[in-house]
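This follows on from our talk about sequence and fold. Please put the record directly below this note.
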Amino acid sequence: MFNKVSLVEQSILSTKVSKIVPVNYDKININILENYYYNNTQNTSEFSYLNNYYNLDFDKNIIWISDFIRDHYRLETKKTPLLLHKAAIVIPQGHQINYHHHIDDYDLENNSSDISAIITTKIGEKPSYIEFEYEQGRKKQMKHRKPLEQKEAIIFNSEIRHAFTKNFNHEPTLLLSFKFQLI
């Protein structure tokens, strides 16, 4: 009989944000676009993925979505996510965001997240996708593509490299990004 020890478990979970949660997506989109238009980016370096991530003003709608993710993740996994970081992502027409992960390579102990969540707040009619790239074993560099859907939360391990495909819509795709530490 073999004893199995799992070293790393990676997963991608998705769920629609419940209609019971009284989120006003129009207010969230205004919050996102205001920070985008004022170029309130989280990093100005062209080499950082955070130059595509924008600061957000905290409001009750963002708290409600964060709480929804926390509660549903805890029910599913018996682990409680603690919010570390929030951001907005804007993908204008004809743009994409290249592969990156949400791990702080220089501060793994204190500043890195365990799981990340992406919530689509506005998307056009033409499909856009988030792509995940495998980095381990024989499946290295294989990809999994998931369509972005309005009001859907996609939760994944923060170390998984991911990218957002080109936006072919006239209007920008708007997303929320959360990073959580598991306690």
About this structure: The chain has a mean pLDDT of 91. DSSP finds two helices and ten strands in the chain. The two ends are 33 Å apart (CA to CA).
